[in-house]
Amino acid sequence: MRTPVALTACLLSSSLLLTGCFAGAGAQTAATDEAGGGGRIKLAMMQPPRSGLSPFSDDAFKLSRWSTAETLVKLDEVGDAQPALATSWKRISPQVWEFTIRSGVTFHDGTALTADVAAFALTRATSASPKPRILDGVRLTAVAKGNSLVVTTAEADPLVPQRLSSPQLSILAKAAYSATRVNPVGTGSGPYRLVEVRGTSGARLDRYDGYWGGKARADGIDVSFVPDGAARAAAIRSGSAHLVESVPVSQAALLAPETITEVPMPRTNTLYLNTRSGRLKDPALRAAIRAAVDREALVKGVYEGRADLATGLLGPALPWAAKGRAELTGRTAAKAPAGTTITLATFSDRAELPEVASVLQQQLQQAGFVVKQVVREYAHIEEDALAGKFDAFILSRATVLDSGDPIAYLYSDFACEGSFNIAQLCDPRVDAALTTAKGTAAGDARRAAILAAEAAVLRTDAAVPLLHERVIQGDSADLMDSAKDPRERMLVTAETRLR
C-alpha cells in the first residue's frame, strides 16, 4: 500500500517538519487564567483510522479518546459500571435489563438523545458485519420503552452494563447511520465535535458548547496520525505536540522526565507451556521452567525498567488483583531438566518479544534445558501456536477486553473449549473455577471468583506470567489534566487544557 503524501511528510521527522503536521498550529490562544484554558490541543496518535472511524471497529477507541462519542455506561477504576448517557439501570430478570436514558443530552447535529435513538444505535451494532468485538457470541436486542431502554440477551449475562461501556457501542445521532456506513462527523455527544477527518493524516475537533456535562476547557483538538515512534517523541521534544500517545520504550529515556507518564496496561507478557503434548506435558518440568525464569532480568534488560514484574496473570492495571490475591499453594515441585530439549517460539511483530525469547533461552539453558528458538511474523506462526506445535510460546496478551472484565481472556486462553488455548490446557478444576466466575454478578464477589480462577490456572503451570507492560504517554509542560487511562479509552477530556 502507498503511504499517503501527508503521512509521509510527517515521518520525515525533523522537528521543523513535524510542526507542520499539526493542523491549526498557528491557532493556539493564550490561557485565560492561572488554571489554564482556551487554545487548541495538538495531539499525536500512533495509528490512523483503519475502518473510516466506524464505532463498530477498533477506531471507536479514537472517538472515545477524543471525547466526541459516548456510551450509555462508563467504567470506574476497578471496572464497575457507572452512569454516562444512561443514569441508572436495573436487572428485570436474568436476561432482561432496563436502562434510564439521560435527559437534556443533544448530539452535535442538534438532535436529542432518546431511548428510541439509543435502541436504534444498538440495533445497528448487533446487525453490523463484522459485529463489534464486544458482541462476539452475544445475542442482544434493544427496544425503547418510554424514556427507558430495555436490553434483552439470549442467555443470562451479568455483564450487560459493562458491555455497554465499550466504545464500540457508542451512541451516535440517527443521522450517522446510512445503509452502508456509520459517519461520526458531527454526530457524537461529547464535549468535542468532530468536524473534519483528513484521511490517514489527521482530524479536527471543536468544542461543543451544548455539551450536557459543561463546556470543555480547551477550544478544540488538532489530531495528527504519526505511526513512527521516534517522530512522535520528537514532537514532544520540539514542542510541536502537546500530547503524544504510545511513546516507545527506546524513546522514553530521550525525553525530559516531567513530560513522561507511565501507566500500567492490562497487558501481560506470558510464557505459555504446552500441557497436552511434548516434553512439557510433565507438570514437574513445567514447574522447573517456572522456577528458572528471572523476571527482573527481563524488566531491567529488555524493557529498561519500564514494565512491572508479574506475580499473576492480572497486573497493576487492575488494582484489586494484587489486593485480593492470596498466597498460591498446592503447586507441583520442580524436577531437574537433565538436558530436556524444548522448542521456544514467539513472533517478531512486537519488537521486544524476540529479545525476551533470547534472554529466556539463556535462563532455561542455565537451568539445564536444551532450547531451540523459533521466531516468525505473527501471521505465519499463529496457526502452529494454536495447534500446539511448540513446547513454549511467548505472547503479549491483553488481559482485559472490551467489557473491562478479565473472564473473557481467562476463558479463551485456559478453558478446555477456549478459542485461544495455546497452552492446550484442559483441566476440570480450571473449567469449574472459570464457570463459577463467569456466572457471578459484577462486584467484589465476581472479582474474588476471578482470582480463584487465576489461581487454578497458575497451579497447572500452563502459563508463567513474566511482566506487565505499560503505556508511555508524553505530555508537554503546557498541558494540564490529560487522562492517564490504562484501558486507553480516555485521553483528552473536558478538563484537559493548556496553561
TrEMBL record:
Residues 82-419 form the Solute-binding protein family domain. The keyword Hydrolase does not apply. Keywords: Signal. The keyword Transmembrane helix does not apply. Gene3D superfamilies: Dipeptide-binding Protein, Domain 3 (3.10.105.10), Periplasmic binding protein-like II (3.40.190.10). Residues 1-25 form the signal peptide. This is ABC transporter substrate-binding protein. It comes from Kribbella sancticallisti.
